[in-house]
Design a protein that fits this description.
Elements (H helix, E strand, L loop, with lengths): L7 H22 L22 E11 L2 E10 L5 E10 L5 E9 L4 E6 L13 E10 L4 E3 L1
Antiparallel strand pairs: 1-2, 2-5, 3-4, 3-6, 6-7
Length: 144
């Protein structure tokens, strides 16, 4: 019988608690029912050399408000800890959303954001997104 007080099992319990807290925080942040994700993402701008690959970026608009869906993957060999995505909507001023966390290489990250308060995204017909900035665990940064 194995017992780990300060080993892998304790770390797994801490990680599970952190995931529950993060999920609770997200559900509090999105207190209104989440709109359904659009079937097809809007246009993406190519970024062949960027260490963070933006897989999709879309907006969903409902009576409850707008949400922005961002899906990216770290293509570098070092975990990213901050990613800024810049969005440009056809009917609103450009905006940015910042994602902070540990984004391990090769792992698909999909998050939902409320748009910035000053972004009027109620009638968007087209949304283009790019990764504008990334900071990595080793202290290096990349920007467009």
């Amino acid at each position: 019988m194995q017992r780990f007080v300060h080993g892998v099992l304790a770390a797994e319990r801490v990680r599970a608690v952190q995931m529950v807290i993060a999920a609770a925080g997200l559900s509090l942040a999105l207190a209104t029912p989440a709109p359904q994700r659009p079937a097809a993402p809007y246009a993406l701008q190519p970024a062949a050399t960027a260490p963070i690959r933006l897989r999709s970026c879309s907006i969903s608009i409902s009576k409850a408000g707008s949400v922005i869906w961002v899906d990216f993957v770290d293509r570098s060999t070092v975990a990213a800890n901050e990613v800024i995505v810049r969005g440009d909507a056809s009917t609103a001023a450009p905006f940015e959303v910042t994602d902070v966390g540990t984004f391990s290489p090769g792992i698909d990250i999909e998050h939902v954001f409320r748009p910035p308060r000053d972004a009027a995204l109620t009638s968007v017909r087209r949304l283009s997104c790019v990764v504008a900035y990334a900071r990595f665990a080793d202290g290096t940064t990349w920007s467009r």
